[in-house]
Design brief:
About 40% of the residues lie in helices and about 15% in strands. By secondary structure, the protein is of the alpha/beta class. The protein has 14 helices and 7 strands. The chain has a 7-stranded mixed β-sheet, with helices on both faces.
Length: about 300
């Protein structure tokens, strides 16, 4: 299978993980195995990599590209189940975890997956190819629910107008086509706005994808598990692609690094809280050369936290 994907912030992520040759590492979103291959190049014979992905097509490619390496364990699952995955492998602590939260180039460029508003395809957007689909959301959610996800997940200021227009249009027939939905969204947005700010459907397609895959909830609910799974000195590196994800990661990482929470007027600390982590750097974004070679990297942000205390 031709699973094309250009790894974003490749060298920066590998450097952030500070890979030990004998360490145990997890790639939570292995995809085309780009970052995973880089991790393996830095691992010695005693090292180990757990390569996770929920996309069955990605798993097929991962097994083909790196599955024969005896240091690799390939797991078809969502990273939100990290705790049970590690328990099933009898692994208590690991040295590093990474996750690239973007949609892969393969998923975007394979029209029938339904992620793109540029290609005609059934409304799908399921990374795992199972469960709730984009068509279910578009045709089954109430106007109020659609407004909420467009506003919260897409940060779309015309959320209410778009939701109302979708409900009006679907009353005349089922909406199951990506280009049809993109045109409906475009019709709902004022003409002056449509002429600027990129494709008018971009924010709503993002919102639907996040809803279909439960991405923000899974991320928010798993960051503590990821950090707790690290041994002291281990690092967690996350690549995000929009402000909602980045905000969740930034807040969690800052909380890991937070110390005493006593009021300023308290002469001696009584809460007993000390930092469990430190930030090796604030954040990292693509440079000019990467942006020139890969336009899809333009919104990527890498953040990293190192565990300094259990």
């Amino acid at each position: 299978m031709d699973f094309s994907h250009t790894s974003v912030l490749y060298q920066e992520t590998l450097d952030a993980l500070n890979i030990r040759p004998d360490g145990y590492y997890v790639d939570c979103t292995c995809g085309g195995a780009g970052h995973s291959r880089g991790i393996l190049e830095r691992l010695g014979p005693e090292g180990r990599l757990i390569a996770i992905d929920q996309d069955p097509e990605a798993i097929e490619v991962i097994r083909e590209r790196i599955g024969s390496d005896e240091r690799v364990t390939v797991v078809h699952d969502n990273f939100s189940h990290l705790s049970s995955i590690l328990a099933s492998l009898s692994i208590e602590k690991i040295d590093g975890i990474m996750a690239d939260l973007g949609v892969s180039s393969h998923q975007l460029d394979t029209a029938e997956r339904g992620f793109s508003y540029h290609s005609q395809a059934p409304l799908d957007m399921r990374m795992s190819k199972q469960g709730l689909s984009a068509a279910d959301v578009v045709n089954g959610y109430s106007e109020k629910e659609l407004t909420r996800i467009f506003r919260e997940y897409g940060e779309e200021k015309f959320a209410a107008r778009i939701a109302k227009h979708i409900v009006d249009c679907r009353s005349r027939g089922y909406i199951n086509d990506t280009l049809e939905l993109a045109e409906i969204i475009k019709e709902a947005i004022p003409a002056a706005t449509r002429r600027s700010g990129g494709h008018p459907a971009r924010r709503c397609f993002q919102a639907i994808r996040l809803e279909v895959n439960g991405e923000l909830e899974k991320l928010s609910g798993t960051l503590d598990t990821m950090f707790d799974s690290l041994r002291v000195g281990g690092r967690l590196a996350i690549i995000t692609f929009h402000s909602l994800e980045d905000r969740i990661v930034k807040r969690a990482f800052n909380d890991f690094c937070k110390g005493c929470e006593c009021p300023p007027q308290t002469p001696v600390c009584i809460c007993g809280k000390t930092p469990r982590g430190r930030l090796p750097f604030k954040k990292c974004q693509p440079g000019e050369l990467e942006l020139e070679n890969n336009q899809r990297s333009r919104s990527a942000t890498l953040r990293c936290v190192e565990k300094i205390k259990d």
